Structure formats: C-alpha cells, structure tokens
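Re: weekly structure request thread

Next one in the queue (330 aa):
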Amino acid sequence: MSTTAAVRSLKFWQALNEALVEEMERDAAVVLVGQDVAAAGGTYGVTRGLATRFGEARVRDTPISEAALAGLGVGSAAVGLRPIVEIMFFDFTTLAMDQIVQQAAKFRYFTSGRPLPVVFRTMCGAGAGMGAQHSQSLEAWFCHVPGLTVVMPSGPADAKGLLKSAIRLDDPVLFIETAALLTARGDVPDVDDHLVPLGVADVKLPGEDVTLVALGRYVDRALAAAEQLAGDGVSVEVVDPRTLQPLDLATLLRSVRKTGRLVVAHEAPVPFGVGAEICAAVAEQAFDALRAPVRRVGAPFTHVPVSQELAELRVPSVDDIVAAVQATIR
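Done, posted below.
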C-alpha cells in the first residue's frame, strides 16, 4: 500500500520566511541584516515577524549602503556568525561587487581554507514594475566567479529547501529570488527539516524528444510549453538546474544524450547568459548525441521597461518556448 507524503500549500515568500525562521531557531549564530528587514518585515514580507521573534540583536535594519551591508556580512561571517544579507534588488549588487566578488568569494583562497558562511539574498526579474534599475537578471555575472555558489529556485518547495541548505553551507552563497514568483503558490513537504541539496538539478518532467532547461520563473513556463507540446505528440523533458554554480552538468548531459535536442529558457538577455554556458558545455561534451542545433530562449538585448505590460512583452512567452522546441524537431 503506497502512502503520499504530507504537503502544505505555501506562497514563495512564505516558504522563504519559514526557512529563515527554522534556521534561526536551529542555530543562534544565524543573523539577518538588510534594509527594512526588521520593523517593516521586508519589502515583500519575506522577513515578516522575524524581528519580533528573534530580537534586534539578530534581525537588524541597516542604512542604505549595499557595500556596507555586504562588508558587514563578510566580516561577521569571518568571526563566527552565519549572516544572511538581504540586498533588496539584484541591480544593487553592483554597489557591493567588491565585497561579494573580491572578498567573500576569495576568502578561502586567501586564508588557507577558512570557511565564510554568508548568504546574500537578492531579488531579480521584471515582476514588480520597477523599471530598468530594479529588474535585471545578472546571474551570469556571478556564475563567472570562483568560490561563489549561485542558487535560483523556481518554486516554494525548492525555495525553502535550498535556502536552508545555503544557510548551512560554510561558503558564500548568492541566493536569487524572483520577483514574479513571490506570490506563486506550491506544495511544500510538511516535514521537520526540508532540505534540498545544492548543486543538484531536478528533472521536473521526464520526456523523450527534447531537453528543455529552464531557470527561475521560466520553469513554470517550460512546463506549460511541455503540456502544450504533448498535445502535438512531442515529449519534453523539463530540467531545472536550481543551482547555477556549481552547475549539475551531469544531469543535463544525461538528459540531452537521451533526447538528442536542447533548448534553454531564461528571463535574462540571450547574449552571454547562463543559457550560453549550458549550450556550450553540451556542445563540447555531448555533440555526438545532438540531432539538432541547440537553441536559447531569453530576453532581447534591451533594458527593462517600467510598464508591466511592456516588460512582459520583452521577455519570452510560453508560445516562444513552444516555437523554439518545435524548431528543433522539424
């Protein structure tokens, strides 16, 4: 007799909030700093209730200085804490590049292997109507940095499990949340300690004809495209890397060797994106298995408009993904 694991329906932001609560309760060294994370509970509610529960010594509002925030995270991690640093928008990591890239990512290299357990949480994408300086997807920049783990969950269950694993890692993590997913709802395992391993991709939907790799909110669009294509007799395997660096290339290659075709979809602009790295790696290591050219689906090389309608027109739709998959099987 089979049994079904218990689950609860949570929004993306609620899953993140639960992860923060559970890890702060588990380990007194876990602290949280950022702009409006305490009294306001975060701009989008992710840190709601944490200041009341854990006090101002562990949940601290800070001045508006991303460089200072990131430096606070690096310094406090170096002396024994496990800081979580919230950088409100991904765009603002540009103001903290020195601390994240030059200091945090190189800490083990410069100190003969000393750990630096710090998580930089930030939010990407055009889901909030905030325009070109608050809506970028810059993950490819950071995937190019040795010593930095880069994580991008696509749903509430992975968001919770990956964040808990990131907090426990003894190395710096850039944890990228997606604006358009914050209110997305999904089933989260109802267990005492839900963990999702870092560096392990997830096959969201098995298939035989085409491998469709999708990042962040494009996993949902990839699944919708796969459902549409199934009606035409095309079997699509949807793979979510979940961790972008280190990339679980073994899972991606195994899928491509089975299907013989590859399409990669993400919100970031196509040129020089994570999709380009995935396509290049597959072309180098599984070229003999490919039965069609690899294809990338992403935003054009333009800035993000303020208008939500225009912002959505800028990024690929489900139909765009369907068209890319169909092009590989003609």
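Residues 12-26 form the longest helix (15 residues). The chain is about 35% helix and 20% strand.
Next request, please.
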